[in-house]
């Protein structure tokens, strides 16, 4: 019972190995006595064992979804090679550089070795193993095919996280354009325009309308820059809070973001790919279709698709075919509906859903690459218009004065 409640800690040890040679290293354990016993089992006579001091700054690395995907892949590989589950945990934990992940693995390992089921041990860590992950592991345990299920989960997680990474990359480019444009414009207005303004005061003539407008903007920004900065931060903070706390606001954002050119298409196709990947994985694991659709709705990533999948679930539970429900929903591409229909008719639905996921993941990949290629000249164009416009505004009075002199 102690192993379930006591926290794992890192210990540094020094001692002698079986040959009498001096050795030292690092080991994880719940207390000093257990660590010494563990070292003796490994043939080491410990002379000095102490807790590893914690760093003053930084601390432990975070555990990312990619870390969990890699862990799942390693466990699947070990078990396919015939290594028992508990021993697989020990081997995988030993090779981890991320101490947070190592502690997580050893904690789960201790629970499993004390008699708990693998899925039950994972459910104690909902931050890293969601309901879908735990349900699939539980299905694999009950079917006696845990290694195949872990392999399937690893594939699902790798592809899902890769898709998320691509979508994030697509969203980063427009944000980068806006941020760069704002910073460059602000620097020019605050630092460059005032230098020209001092020059213009000696002309003794009215400035062109465009130049006067830029000068007024510069003066206002120099006076109220902190208000602008606070306003931008406040808008970003309020938007994030509203999206987290208000489901109605979040759903409205999800609805309209799908209508943004290029980006909307990327988010739309990624939702279809996620639908195919999650439903294929859960259905192939033996989860009933109606229950599987619940997991898919939660993992859809967009309120429009979430609501559509809930409607599909209700229709499927009343006897309607999946492809007919998808067609009725009106959000799925024709190709996805047709492949689902072929899968239902042939009795090979999980394979067809996997093909849908593969196809639309490739489509997202192409769209992201196209967006990247499109954004590079767009960034140059936006910056060119901003910088060029400000330069023209500053030189207009000089050109006019030259014409008058001429």
Topology:
Layout: H1 2-5, E1 9-16, E2 22-29, H2 32-41, E3 45-51, H3 65-80, H4 85-94, H5 99-113, H6 118-123, H7 131-143, H8 146-200, H9 209-245, H10 247-257, H11 263-284, H12 289-298, H13 303-317, H14 322-329, H15 334-346, H16 349-405
Antiparallel strand pairs: 1-2, 1-3
Give your account of this protein's structure.
The protein has helices at about 1-5, 30-40, 65-80, 85-95, 100-115, 120-125, 130-145, 145-200, 210-245, 245-255, 265-285, 290-300, 305-315, 320-330, 335-345, 350-405, and strands at about 10-15, 20-30, 45-50. Strand 1 (about 10-15) and strand 2 form a beta hairpin. About 30% of the residues are buried. It is built from 16 helices and 3 strands. It is about 75% helix and about 5% strand. The protein has a 3-stranded antiparallel β-sheet, with helices on one face. The model is unreliable at about 1-5 (pLDDT under 50). The chain has about 400 residues and is mainly alpha-helical.
Number of helices: 16
Give the biggest beta sheet. Answer: 3 strands, antiparallel
Strand order of the largest sheet: 2-1-3
Order of helices and strands: HEEHEHHHHHHHHHHHHHH
Question: Which descriptor suits the 3D outline?
Answer: flat
- SS-derived structural category: mainly alpha
Number of strands: 3
Q: Would you identify the regions where 5 or more consecutive residues have pLDDT less than 50?
A: 1-5
* Average predicted local confidence, pLDDT: 82
Instruction: Report the helical percentage.
Output: over 70%
What is the terminal separation in angstroms? 96 Å
Strand residue content: 5-15%
* Radius of gyration, whole Å: 30 Å
């Amino acid at each position: 019972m102690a192993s379930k409640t006591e926290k794992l800690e890192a210990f540094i040890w020094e001692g002698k190995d079986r040959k009498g040679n001096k050795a030292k290293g690092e080991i994880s354990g719940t207390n000093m006595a257990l660590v010494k016993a563990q070292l003796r089992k490994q043939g080491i006579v410990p002379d000095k064992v102490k807790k590893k001091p914690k760093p003053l700054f930084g601390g432990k690395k975070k555990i990312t979804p990619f870390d969990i995907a890699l862990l799942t892949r390693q466990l699947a590989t070990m078990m396919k090679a015939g290594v028992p589950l508990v021993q697989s945990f020990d081997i995988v934990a030993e090779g981890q550089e991320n101490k947070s992940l190592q502690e997580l693995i050893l904690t789960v390992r201790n629970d499993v070795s004390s008699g708990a089921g693998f899925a039950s041990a994972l459910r104690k860590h909902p931050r890293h193993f969601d309901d879908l992950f735990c349900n699939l592991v539980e299905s694999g345990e009950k079917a006696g095919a845990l290694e195949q299920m872990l392999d399937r989960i690893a594939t699902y997680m790798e592809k899902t996280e890769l898709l998320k990474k691509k979508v994030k990359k697509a969203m980063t480019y427009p944000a980068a354009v806006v941020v760069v444009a704002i910073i460059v414009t602000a620097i020019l207005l605050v630092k460059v325009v005032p230098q020209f303004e001092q020059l213009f005061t000696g002309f003794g003539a009215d400035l062109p309308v465009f130049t006067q407008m830029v000068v007024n903007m510069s003066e206002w920004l120099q006076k109220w820059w902190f208000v602008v900065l606070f306003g931008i931060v406040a808008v970003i903070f309020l938007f994030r809070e509203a999206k987290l706390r208000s489901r109605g606001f979040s759903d409205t954002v999800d609805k309209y973001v799908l209508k943004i050119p290029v980006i909307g298409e990327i988010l739309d196709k990624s939702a279809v790919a996620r639908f195919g990947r999650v439903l294929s994985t859960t259905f192939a694991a033996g989860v009933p279709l109606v229950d599987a659709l619940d997991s898919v709705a939660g993992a859809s990533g967009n309120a429009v698709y979430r609501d559509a999948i809930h409607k599909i679930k209700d229709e499927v539970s009343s006897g309607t075919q999946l492809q007919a429900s998808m067609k009725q929903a009106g959000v799925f591409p024709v190709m996805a509906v047709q492949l689902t229909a072929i899968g239902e008719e042939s009795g090979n639905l999980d394979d067809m859903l996997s093909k849908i996921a593969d196809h639309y993941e490739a489509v997202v990949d192409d769209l992201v690459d196209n967006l990247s290629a499109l954004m590079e000249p767009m960034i140059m164009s936006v910056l060119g218009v901003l910088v060029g416009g400000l330069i023209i505004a500053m030189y207009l009075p000089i050109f006019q004065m030259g014409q008058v002199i001429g």
